Amino acid sequence: MKSFTYVIQDPLGIHARPAGLLVKAAKEFADTEITLTKGDKTVKGTQLMKLMGLGVKTGDSVTVTAEGASEDAAIAAMEQFFKSNL
């Protein structure tokens, strides 16, 4: 299992556009489960409505975890995605 913590920089937080892109990026790693955790809530990276339901705002800290066969590649891709989009 690999993980990293990221502080959201996007002025709107995780809203529809980046959430959709995040789901698309997470689905590329079918053999690896990617999850996001904010506070005591954890959701799968492939569940759009649940991701948006986390209510992640600017300045919030989220922990991204990847567990599975491609966890190294998945966590690297997620870290790059967050830096570029959120």
From TrEMBL:
It comes from the Bacteria. Pfam families: PTS-HPr. It is found in: Cytoplasm. This is Phosphocarrier, HPr family. It comes from Pseudoflavonifractor capillosus ATCC 29799. The keyword Ion transport does not apply. Its main location: cytoplasm. InterPro entries: HPr, HPr-like, HPr-like_sf.
